[in-house]
Amino acid sequence: MTTTAAPARQAPETGQPKGTSFASATWLVAEREVKSFLRTKGFWIGIGVIVAALFALSILPGLFGGGQTSIAAVGTDASRTLQGSDLEVRQVADRQEAEQLVRAEQVDAAVLPDLTGQSATGVRVLALSSPPTDVIAALNTAPPVDLLETSEVDGAQSTIVVMAFSVVFMMFAMGGIAIAQSTVTEKQTRIVEILVATIPVRALLAGKILGQFLLTLGQLVIVAVAAPIALQLGGHTDLLRLIAPALGWFIPFLLVAFVLLASLWAVAGSLVSRQEDLGSSMSLVMILVLGPYFGVTFFSENETVLTVLSYVPFSAGLAMPVRMFNEQAQVWEALLSLGILAASVVLVAALATRLYSGSLLQTGGKVALSKAWRRAD
Amino acid sequence: MLQVKSVSRSFGDHRVLQDISFDVRPGRMTGFVGANGSGKTTTMRIILGVLAAHGGAVTWRDTPVTQPVRQRFGYMPEERGLYPKMKIAEQITWFARLHGLDQATARRNTDRLLAQLDLTERANEALENLSLGNQQRVQIAAALVHEPEMLILDEPFSGLDPIAVEVVLAVLREHAAAGVPVLFSSHQLELVERLCDDLVILSGGNIAAAGGRDELRGRFGTERFELVVDTDAGWLRDQPDVRIVDIDGPRAVFELSSTAGPQADQEVLRAAMQRGQVRTFAPVIPSLSEIFKEAV
To answer: Which residue intervals define the domain ABC transporter in the entry (chain B) (predicted)?
Structure first.
């Protein structure tokens, strides 16, 4: 046995490894995360369902619902003008009767003789809350339109947009569950011990969030490509024109909100040691996802509630884009809300890192938050 | 050289490690033994920075062990775990890159290790499809793939069949021969005895003994002798300075009392030869388990 040791292995084949920087460690974790998800069937099924739902929502109502647009026509001029169109024309006696039918929503619009001389076609169109495009199209030239209830945005369209935003928001907020699951997998298989011995815990957390963020972004791109096609096929080109600027706000809010929730999902995952226990630790995060979703869906008509929700970090990601779409908020409000959201991301991410580090290596049952906080050494 | 200096650690009120210090020297296999709960795993976790020490320090080449330093260590935790659904070659390469190797080197090292560990044919299978023994080999590959400058292995042989033990042993020896300090814990004392150059014995959170294997033998193993004669060896009982450990007809194992002179063994031999034929007269080397019992 020799007591003088051979020189320590200084140069493995291609020189000393440079060591992994924080950024490259984060990237390696993210890359693995993305690759492993792209390989799961569930991921692709999920995307398939979303795209299918998108097409179904925009095309099916046109096929089954509504049918012909019905028109109440006053006077012979109006009837004559509408001849040859595929509108269902109902002859009525006077403007009063036509107006009643429109208000009762028994007809979609009414066509009246124009008495002011403003109209080139000699007729006016009467509708409830938005200009009936197909009627106007049937009249060839655009006659003046009188709206009985003015609104910046069509109520029905607004409902669809709020619904669409909510569903997409939910989808991405819930996408964070994958972070919780992958964290538990690493705890359950104990691989976390090697990971923690090799790279900083912050890099592990950041990599997980980045990986899921990229996956989410990818899904978003697929939705962004599929949505216009679906809307076009469903004949909702006007809706598309309307949604486009609102998406400009929705996307940044969605992405920042994602990071906020993702940090929390990671903590939820780190608190338990087995997949079976995940449900219990995820319930709080679930509330933070579902709360805003139901809040905004129920109160989309209530401007006061919506205004409050648009500044609360957890609901801002959904509420503010809806307000921007409804043209209820100024640009500075959106920027302020985005600022608040970004600030809370920084704060929550810092808290989450501490809780995540404190609980990651503790196995056996659920780790109490207070214990996770103290153990973060 | 890795040095553990006065490291302490408590869990709640329970003090698990009390001021422990020892060295792991380059090119040597250091066996880390101790009863369950004596603090072996805790010590290893502290060296790897997985746990924080509550006192003391760990240094590598006289500088504190920080995260970048640790990245060049190879670690095999007691509780095994890799990604179950990831292909093994891909997984090992990923770990190499996580330790700072570039893709090409990572690939090359992976292929070489898989060949050494007889896993080349399974390279593209998901880990979960392998037997537990083979998963263990993959785990070892993951700890070695980045050409670590220091190896820390918690129970590297548990769960391995005898052939796999030899395979892993050969790989570890190769690393030690190249100058890498290797610290490994094991319950299999016979294996540690065969394998280690140095020994650290932990007992109840304290170092019971640490040093070269042979030095510890000298220190803790009381010198014993075996004597085999043709007739009954019962006369030994009346010999001065002799304490009988075991006697069975012509065969006896005895110790010399601490007051015996340096020539006491020769006197016993002479007395035996006066009585007849002596078939065996030899010192008995204490086994590790005896040292262990003695030290703890």
So the answer is: 2-229
Which residues between 215 and 254 in chain B have a beta carbon less than 8 angstroms from any beta carbon of chain A?
Answer: none
CB B199 within 8 A of CB B213: yes
Domains parsed from chain B with CATH numbers:
2-212 (3.40.50.300), 221-295 (3.30.70)
* pTM, entire model: 0.73
DSSP 3-state of B202: strand
Token pair listed for A59: 């095309």
Within a domain: residue A63? Answer: no
* Residue A20 per-residue DSSP state: -
Helices B88-98 + A191-198 axis angle, to 10: 30
DSSP-assigned beta bridge partners for residue A89: A71
More confident residue, B178 or B160: B178
* A6 within domain boundaries: no
Minimal CA separation from B99 to chain A, in Å = 6
CB–CB of A9 and B147 under 8 A?
yes
Give how many domains chain A has, as a whole number: 2
Look up the domain containing A322 and give its range.
22-58+154-373
Q: Are residues A223 and A132 in the same domain?
A: no
Question: How many helices and strands (H and E) does chain B possess?
Answer: 10, 14
Does residue A324 share a domain with residue A223?
Answer: yes
Question: What residues in A contact B82, CB-CB < 8 Å?
Answer: 189, 191
Amino acid at residue number A209: I
Which of A7, A36, A192 is nearest residue B85 as measured by Cβ atoms? A36
Q: What distance in Å separates the CA atoms of residue A359 and residue A377, rounded to the nearest whole number?
A: 11
- A17 vs B72, B179, B181: nearest CB: B72
| Chain-chain contact of A189 with B73 (C-beta, under 8 angstroms) | no
**Candidates B49, B83, B179; nearest CB to A191:** B83
Model confidence over A183-242: pLDDT tens digits?
Answer: 888 888 888 888 988 898 889 989 998 998 888 888 878 887 887 888 788 777 776 776
pLDDT tens by residue, B138-160 = 998 999 999 999 999 998 888 78
Q: How far is B101 from chain A (nearest CA, A)?
A: 5
Is position A111 within any domain? Answer: yes
At residue A27's C-alpha, the angle toward residues A22 and A29, to 5°, is: 100
Instruction: Examine the fold and report which residue of A132, A147, A162 is the final residue of a domain before the chain moves on.
Output: A147
